[in-house]
Amino acid sequence: MKKISVAILGATGYTGAELIRFVEAHPYFDIAHLGAHSQAGKKAGEVLPGIAGNLAEMPTNYYPGMCRWYLPPCRMALLPAV
């Protein structure tokens, strides 16, 4: 089965980090994009010490606020509750 690409916006916050853990362990999802605001531009492993492997090298990209119109080509975006 082909995995579903997801974007996690707010990835460097506590809830975003938990979403990363759940999605990374899920057999049907693949993290394609990590969005951040204050930590944008840093690699995920620099901001989230519990992240390892290929995901640790993924950059956190800036997204303008909680703008739902800016999304990479993914089938699902997960936004932590604020």
CATH domain topology: Rossmann fold
Number of strands: 4
Which term fits the overall shape? Answer: globular
Distance between the termini: 33 Å
| Number of helical segments with 4 or more residues | 2
Biggest sheet, strands in spatial order?
3-2-1-4
Largest sheet: 4 strands, parallel
Average pLDDT, all residues: 77
CATH class designation: Alpha Beta
CATH superfamily: NAD(P)-binding Rossmann-like Domain
In which range does the helix fraction lie? Answer: 10-25%
Order of SSEs, N→C? EHEHEE
What percent of residues are in strands? 15-25%
How many distinct folded domains? 1
Q: Which radius of gyration do the C-alpha atoms yield? A: 12 Å
Question: What is the CATH architecture term?
Answer: 3-Layer(aba) Sandwich
Describe it.
There is one protein chain. The protein is of the alpha/beta class and about 80 residues long. The protein is built from 2 helices and 4 strands. It has helices spanning about 15-25, 45; strands spanning about 5-10, 30-35, 60, 75-80. The protein has a 4-stranded parallel beta sheet with strand order 3-2-1-4, covered by helices on one side.
